[in-house]
Amino acid sequence: MESKVVTVLYFAAASTATGLTSEKISIPDDGLKLSDLTEVLNQHHEGKGLKGIIETSQWSVDLEMVEDPDRVLLRGGEEVGIICPVSGG
């Protein structure tokens, strides 16, 4: 049986920290709360400062911005974006 995965898209500082623009992350068969994805990604990219970046960022799931990550259950197949704050000038 194939494990469930989500595709994580990294933008701006998150991309710089991980050295990636995207990657597939396995999640439990019973799903994973979006808010818990921070810890999964932090463990996967330990020592790269990703947790601090995520804490100041917003999430998107399938191109929709997420207001409350605690209320979103990932079931596999979703595209999750880490949208970092950007400054303009």
From TrEMBL:
InterPro entries according to UniProt: Beta-grasp_dom_sf, MOCS2A, Mopterin_synth/thiamin_S_b, ThiS/MoaD-like
GO CC terms in record: molybdopterin adenylyltransferase complex
UniProt keyword annotations, A-Z: Nucleotide-binding
MF terms in GO: nucleotide binding
One Pfam family, short name: ThiS
Keyword DNA-binding applies: no
Highest rank taxon of the organism: Eukaryota
GO biological process: Mo-molybdopterin cofactor biosynthetic process
Name of the protein: MOCS2A
